[in-house]
Amino acid sequence: MHKKIKCVLPLLQIINKIYYNSIEMKSLKIGDLTSLIPIVQGGMGVGISLSGLASAVAKEGGIGVISAAGLGLLYRKLSPNYTEAGNLGLIEEVRKTREKIRETGGIIGVNIMVALSDFAELVKTCISEKVDIIFSGAGLPLDLPSFLKKDSVTKLVPIVSSARATRIICERWQAHYNYLPDAVVLEGPKAGGHLGFKETQLNDERFSLEELLPEVVQEVSLFEQKYHKNIPVIAAGGIYTGEDILRIMNLGASGVQLGTRFVTTTECDASEAFKNAYIQATQEDIEIIKSPVGMPGRAIRSSFLDKVKEGLKQPKICPYNCIKTCNIATSPYCIIMALYNAFIGNFEYGYAFAGSNAFRAKRITSVKETFQELINEWKNGENQ
């Protein structure tokens, strides 16, 4: 059986390489990893991007990403302890993803928010499981390299919202750990979920992805030149079409991260009701909310969010202590339960995070079809 896999795997890689080389998209190199298509699938929690979506994206030559957020809730049957259940759930999701890409190969990552109370434990689990890449945002992951061991193979990729944040992380990592990021994700203000901007900055052109990207590329280049390490910049937030990818990469990005576009795929791990929330949404339904995490967020309007605006105060106690910055005394609701309810399709008690382009989704497609559409859109952009 093992001999057969070894024979099949190189053949599949050769076929993929021939096909993807023909579309003239640059591959994305992160250390010794090469993604044939320069697309990272954004990590989306709670439960939106698990092994189903991550493996499907990896099979198509992109980088599939599991979200670690809320795994302690999703896998609570494995342990009454939230942190332990989260770690056991993460191990299961990583191994399920690996099994699904066993014959095709592919790159998988895990998104771990700095704000998670079990951040350290989840990082350690990823490194021990030899996950390809850890993506980390929702705060500055200033001590992320401290978890690496001498034999660690996991790449570390911080998610930032400015050149200043990029510089702080690079200087800190280099000074304390003699390590620089293997790549950087720049997430602009049109992204879904929690946003690393003040609400007043979200519609300010000075903070647009197009304005921030050259600044971050320039900042990264200083560290690349000084320390002789390649650090690709991956752009995210509001990128929806192949034309968007082409335009952003022409501004200096080495790759892009897409989340919203992959929600309405058959392989996405969310419920059909969650996916339909995207398909049924209008542009006016996409709104900025104040999250209990202490950051603005972008979500699709729901009856639950309407109740929050009217003064709903739901939690009496904090059931999980999942977020470091969430205060039960001032929070109008438990965010992890709200996101979990949306994941299972209960919008009376939850809401869906979404990027600014979520309203453009019109139908459910497979991940393979989505990649083909993106490639065709890229080609159309080149021909214009």
List keywords for this structure.
single chain, about 375 residues, alpha/beta, TIM Barrel, 2 domains, 8-stranded parallel beta sheet, 3-stranded antiparallel beta sheet, 13 helices, 13 strands, about 40% helix, about 15% strand
Topology:
Blueprint: H1 2-21, E1 28-30, E2 33-35, E3 39-41, H2 51-59, E4 63-67, H3 71-74, H4 82-100, E5 107-111, H5 119-128, E6 133-136, E7 155-160, H6 163-177, E8 184-187, E9 193-194, H7 209-227, E10 233-236, H8 242-250, E11 255-258, H9 260-263, H10 272-280, E12 286-290, E13 296-300, H11 303-309, H12 335-343, H13 367-383
Parallel strand pairs: 3-11, 4-5, 5-6, 6-7, 7-8, 8-10, 10-11
Antiparallel strand pairs: 1-2, 9-13, 12-13
Helix pairs in contact: 2-4, 4-5, 6-7, 8-13
Describe this structure in words.
The structure is a single chain. With 384 residues, this protein is α/β, with parallel strands linked by helices. The protein has 2 domains: 2-271 and 361-378, Alpha-Beta Barrel (TIM Barrel); 273-343, no CATH class. Helix content is 39%, strand content 14%. It contains 13 helices and 13 strands. The strands form 3 sheets. It has an 8-stranded parallel beta sheet. A 3-stranded antiparallel beta sheet has the order 9-13-12, with no helix packed on it. Helix 4 (82-100) runs parallel beside helix 5 (119-128) and helix 8 (242-250) crosses helix 13. It is globular. It starts with a helix and ends with a helix. Mean pLDDT is 90; it is low at 1-12.
